Amino acid sequence: MSAIGDLDRHRYLALATFRKSGAEVATPVWFAAAGGTLYVCSAGDAGKVKRLRQSSRARVAPSDARGRVQGAWRDATARLVTEPAAIERAHAALRAKYGWQVWLADVLSRLTGRIGRRAWIAIEV
To answer: Which of 99, 91, 63, 59 lies closest to 76 in space, CA to CA?
Structure first.
């Protein structure tokens, strides 16, 4: 099985990004695979988004909802996505994987006015 397929079997991914000092910060995230790329949606002002603006260096591992790693870490490259077609592909993949939970998150984001401030992350393993 491919690295992407092996990861996509899990519900959560520990996404580790790096501070300017080199310190690693891992965060559990929802993710979905599409076209050989893993996609993550986050608040635009989240720490992981700020760190990715500084460096595309990342690591990923399957995890539980609390971020407890459940498999091997893999080196990765992560970047912020701004192309509308890629964002729609990522959103569709998340909807297919998480269903009503993504629908609910979208509704809440619209109600709070945060939907326009989302950041989309593409991860290459």
So the answer is: 59
